[in-house]
């Protein structure tokens, strides 16, 4: 793969990560969930690119795990937030 394409992709992912962090640190719960999901996708993509550059086999497995655990964590967090605080009941 062309070296400049890899550099452009990594720089684009860094800018995407900053926007995901900006969303994740807002006060609304929906923004936090969107930022967390976006950050999981960005980190997994970055790991796949690093695996392509350095030929590390297990990094792709870690990226796949991140892509699976990111949405599962988002769903679990939203279910927990939907139930509310048990002290309020």
From TrEMBL:
Annotated GO MF terms: monoatomic ion transmembrane transporter activity
Do the record's keywords include Transmembrane helix?
Answer: yes
Q: Which residues cross the membrane?
A: 6-25, 37-56, 62-81
What superkingdom does the record give? Archaea
Q: Which InterPro entries match?
A: MrpF/PhaF-like
**Topology of this chain in the membrane:** Multi-pass membrane protein
A GO cellular component entry from the record = plasma membrane
Localization recorded for this chain is: Cell membrane
Q: Write out the entry's keywords from A to Z.
A: Cell membrane, Membrane, Transmembrane, Transmembrane helix
Q: Which Pfam families does the UniProt entry name for this protein?
A: MrpF_PhaF
Q: Does the keyword Membrane apply?
A: yes
Q: What is this protein called?
A: Energy-converting hydrogenase B subunit B
Q: Please report the organism this UniProt entry assigns to the protein.
A: Methanococcus maripaludis (Methanococcus deltae)
